[in-house]
Specification:
By secondary structure, this protein is of the alpha+beta class. Strand 1 and strand 2 form a beta hairpin. The model has no long low-confidence stretch (mean pLDDT 83). It is globular. It has a three-stranded antiparallel sheet with strand order 1-2-3, with no helix packed on it. Helices cover 40% and strands 10% of the residues.
């Protein structure tokens, strides 16, 4: 439902009285919808355990900076027809899910650890090896992103 505000609050967003207000830039209107608590399913538990485990890996600051540099080049490139990545952790998640898809028998994102990545010499141990393994699209000068996890 379209919302008409008495005072011109451009871009007002938020939750008030069990309703969610948000601005839609395509139609240039503020809209409102009722708030409904999402249904909890088995997938919620699975994703929660994966995200908790990946957070515990805690990549090094140099690795994170390599991912920040990567997304800067990734977002500027026009050849992939992709959605831009917002932060280093979105590139990290994209890489880890690609790793699980490439190596389903060896990698389980619910249980993977930093030690397993290093001992098993997995491609995600540095951004350079991940790109060479095809987990992420190559960007110009990716050879300099060699900081270890």
């Amino acid at each position: 439902m379209k919302v008409y505000l008495k005072r011109n609050l451009a871009g007002y967003t938020g939750t008030v009285d069990e309703a969610i207000y948000y601005y839609n830039p395509k139609i240039k209107q503020t809209l409102m919808r009722p708030y409904k608590y999402p249904k909890l399913t088995h997938n919620n538990e699975r994703i929660t355990s994966i995200m908790t485990n990946l957070k515990h890996i805690n990549p090094s600051e140099g690795y994170r900076q390599n991912l920040r540099d990567y997304i800067m080049f990734y977002n500027d490139s026009k050849e992939y027809g992709h959605k831009p990545l917002a932060a280093w952790n979105t590139a990290w998640l994209k890489m880890m899910y690609a790793l699980q898809k490439a190596m389903p028998m060896e990698v389980d994102l619910k249980t993977i650890t930093r030690q397993q990545i290093i001992i098993d010499d997995l491609p995600c141990r540095s951004l350079k090896t991940a790109i060479e393994a095809g987990l992420l699209p190559p960007m110009p000068g990716y050879e300099r992103w060699y900081n270890p996890i």
